[in-house]
Design a protein that fits this description.
alpha+beta, 303 residues, four-stranded antiparallel β-sheet, four-stranded mixed β-sheet
């Protein structure tokens, strides 16, 4: 218990120290960029633990209580109405009070803005470190006359929740549906239709759903087909081991018989072609066709 309390206190001190330092550094950095002379850069309150003067003439101070700090600039005095009158003429161009309004505003706003950017950086680091990776639940296709088809779901729709549970990945969709196996009632699906921004609600009736199935397939039973990313090589690096192992005989065989996928748009639609010649037609899922040529070394090139 005591150890946990000590750890929490230390963590709080470190966190406040980082926030205060970044905040004050924002003021300091913008002030220097605007040509304002900084007299003191202080982090923390109380008696100074360490003080030194940098080559820039600024006094740097570290105090033990990390509940605040300040940046003292030439000409800045919040308690006097005649601030700046006692500044020598040769230093007025470095005075805070003699700077244009937009520069003074930028210096004042730089502290909160620095904390805001720090929050973005921290959340980004957390996301790439502990975030979830997978395929977004975008529907690849819907079987005609299936339950999902009858309620209005279509290919390209993105499922965002099932029964109120957020579904950012296909795994979430499957797990949410598995919880409803064997039940009778209604399955609530919230999705974003393809090409739109607003969500829509879809209600699929259930009647002892998959209760007699030895190998239940929630998505398949509703007629929902996931988008499948085919494991197709794009290019072979010249001089690499894969290139060296790709013999002339194998290349000639694949020139006669091969399959090549082409990504078509953000929804991941693709077209495939199998042929014994080096040219032909490649049809998209939308039904529109275009001529295409093939090179066994460079892949598809659309015309």
């Amino acid at each position: 218990m005591l150890q946990t309390l000590v750890v929490n206190i230390l963590a709080l001190i470190v966190t406040l120290g980082i926030l205060v330092t970044i905040h004050e550094f924002g003021h300091f950095w913008v002030a220097r960029r605007c040509g304002v002379k900084v007299l003191r850069f202080s982090i923390g309150f109380g008696k100074a633990v360490k003080t030194w003067v940098g080559k820039d003439g600024c006094e740097y101070v570290i105090a033990p209580i990390p509940l605040g700090g300040y940046v003292k600039m030439l000409g800045q005095d919040d308690t006097r109405t005649d601030a700046g009158n006692d500044i020598h003429d040769d230093e007025r161009h470095m005075s805070f009070n003699y700077k244009p309004l937009w520069q003074r505003f930028a210096i004042v706003a730089a502290g909160p803005l620095a904390n805001f950017l720090l929050a973005i950086l921290v959340f980004w680091l957390i996301n790439i470190t502990y975030g979830q990776r997978g395929v977004a639940p975008v529907i690849g296709s819907i079987l005609p006359e299936s339950p999902a088809w009858q309620v209005g779901l279509r290919a390209g729709d993105e499922i965002v929740s099932v029964d109120g549970n957020d579904t950012t990945l296909w795994q979430h969709v499957t797990m949410a549906m598995l919880d409803r196996l064997g039940e009778t009632g209604q399955l609530q699906i919230t999705a974003i239709p393809a090409g739109q921004l607003d969500t829509r609600e879809y209600t699929i009736p259930l009647n002892s759903w998959q209760s007699s199935s030895a190998a239940p397939d929630p998505l398949g039973s509703l007629g929902i087909v996931q988008f499948d990313i085919p494991p197709v090589l794009d290019t072979i690096v010249a001089g690499g081991r894969c290139r060296a192992s790709w013999s002339d005989e194998w290349r000639q065989d694949h020139q006669r018989r091969w399959t090549r996928y082409i990504g078509l748009g953000a929804m991941g639609q693709y077209c495939a072609r199998q042929s014994g010649t080096a040219s032909g037609s490649c049809c998209r899922t939308s039904g529109k066709c275009g001529a295409a040529t093939a090179d066994p070394d460079s892949g598809w090139q659309s015309r």
